[in-house]
Amino acid sequence: MAESERFTVSGSQVVEKVKQLIREGNVRRVRLLHDGRTVFDIPLTIGAPVAVAGILAAPVLAAIGAFAALVTECTIEVEKEEEK
Fold first, then answer.
1. Residue ranges of the domains in the chain?
2. What CA–CA distance (Å, rounded) separates 64 from 49?
3. Which of 26, 54, 81, 84 sits at a 20 to 30 Å CA gap from 42?
4. What is the pTM assigned to this prediction?
5. Model confidence pLDDT, tens digit, residues 68-84
């Protein structure tokens, strides 16, 4: 079973926080929530090299950046791979 964490960030911090979470490498899924609704749901491949994840995530990060410019605050929900 995966563990879940939530972070509330301002719109200007969303892209940087998502990039940081992707670099951590143990993230399975990232959801962006605004007013209780899921705006983005980004599944990440377990064990994918960070460079590949970064290249594939670039268009998604651009879309998140456009969304972040429109909101003042949102919640990032992260599903992480459980430590063994």
1. 11-72
2. 21
3. 84
4. 0.69
5. 777 778 888 988 877 66
